[in-house]
Amino acid sequence: MNNLLAAxxxxxxxxxxxxxxxxxxxxxxxxxxxxxxxxxxNQAGQQARAGLIxxxxxxxAQAQNAYGHFVDGMNTGLTILALFLVALAAYxxxxxxxxxxxxxxxxxxxxxxxxxxxxxxxxxxxxxLSLVLLxxxxxxxSAFFWDFGPxxxxxFELIGEDEILYEIHLGLLMAVIPLPAVIAFGMLxxxxxxxxxxxxxxxxxxxxxxxxxxxxxxxxxxxxYATFHPSLLDQSYLREVSRLVRGFSDVLVEDRFFVFNEWAxxxxxxxxxxxxxxxxQRRSL
Length: 285
Known about the structure:
Layout: H1 2-16, H2 19-53, H3 58-62, H4 66-99, H5 101-107, H6 112-145, E1 151-153, E2 156-159, H7 161-176, H8 179-192, H9 196-213, H10 237-244, H11 255-282
Antiparallel strand pairs: 1-2
């Protein structure tokens, strides 16, 4: 335990001066805010055209509701965060092995298992901080450009704010659950690869490949942790929440989807973490 705490303190100290860690911390929030600005500028043009021709629609009215934009901003930020976390996890151990710096930690009596666990914990802390910053930026940005409120059509309230907030909370929870498995997968690739370049390439390549092929697997994709976090080809529940909070009632999600959303990432995390520890104990450094 003392070795693990010492290794964790070292990882946290190094992350304070790491450019990669700062990018992971700030980039999702920055991309989210940039998305808000672009969407707002586009909507301003659409509203000007609609005003000239006297057009009005339910979709145009709901475009001013901040809840939908908040969910979209979180979805975009979580997609960026997942990609950056798997890349940083893949780079972390392998780069230190390439430079030989990891041997100095071993000499100071921190075992290989302690180093791997410390890196996993440090990445989880970094991911949590980035997630909090993303949430604050998404809420503040959406409130700045739009107004929060219930979904209303012709003076009739379709969806109240309590229901909207419940769905957003559930969607964010389901989207965050797979992130530890994302980190553990990157760490497994990091300890198994021959070099840092190979590790990052394999981790990002495998992540994008899973994103592409999960659409072809049908319900079998529910066994894959990558199905449940926001991604470029998104199948997560948060994508459905984006439609729900805009008043669309054609969203149907099976209860089994939520069960797999909870258990598939947890099992994947356990497998990846144990495999990373096993490989790290047997790899030459």
